[in-house]
Structure of F-box/LRR-repeat protein 20:
Amino acid sequence: MFSNNDEAVINKKLPKELLLRIFSFLDVVTLCRCAQVSRAWNVLALDGSNWQRIDLFDFQRDIEGRVVENISKRCGGFLRKLSLRGCLGVGDNALRTFAQNCRNIEVLNLNGCTKITDATCTSLSKFCSKLRHLDLASCTSITNLSLKALSEGCPLLEQLNISWCDQVTKDGIQALVRGCGGLKALFLKGCTQLEDEALKYIGAHCPELVTLNLQTCLQITDDGLITICRGCHKLQSLCASGCCNITDAILNALGQNCPRLRILEVARCSQLTDVGFTTLARNCHELEKMDLEECVQITDSTLIQLSIHCPRLQVLSLSHCELITDDGIRHLGNGACAHDRLEVIELDNCPLITD
């Protein structure tokens, strides 16, 4: 058992700088325990340099605003990364204090912090100009005003998640991209008010975009996504699952403009056919993951093209693709991807597939 004598020996043998370095590898819980050993260790454990990255998800039920305020005062400018994911007790006032104290924050996760409003983004805009990654998923009080504030005060923003913030419209997206043209990842899942006009703004102002999630953005059509393809040639990951209005024109545009595409999720896009997937496969040779669940018009022809042209394919979902047969799966099994790469094929409810 650890004793006061042990602590004294450690303090005598090891210089403060080395102890501080050791403490830098400890997690939040261990640091707090060390802080209770002695006054000397309390000072070392609570040194701001040990608190550059904090994840409070495991304590989400216990975290209230005052905890965040105290942490921000302790960490100050040292804090670079903070996750408050799921901390339902944290609101705008606490995050204003946080923003004032932690002006070097680069990564902030507020996913599921349902108390926060546009006031939080106003605070971040005012004090946190170095912010690069921000997760506001399921913060349903967020509106276009938040995106306008981020555009004005957080020009370095590279990744933004506003999934399920369903008050956001094309006007918010327009404001955002005009000030944050360096965006590389944008998650808009469940933003049901977004229209093609929003995508046209993204395509015109975000040439560095690598990841885009539009799942269940039901108003999106070919027009908007084609603009994305033409303006975002570095695109590597696109999720358009549930965007039921899109057609083969999207697959053609991806094939012609986005050769680096690695991940494509188009589940429940029932208008897509073999013709579009043939163009895609022949041009996007870096594809690794595809979700084609309920793309009900595709046949073995799509699988043959993938087996020939997509040697890096690792994961393929074909559930509810009822025209797929054993012959198509056989081609995949003999294709370039089969021996080294292909790990998962999902075939639920494919009645023509046999054992």
User: Anything to note?
Assistant: The chain has 15 helices and twelve strands. The two ends are 59 Å apart (CA to CA). The longest strand covers residues 53-55. The domain at 1-50 is CATH 1.20.1280 (Monooxygenase).
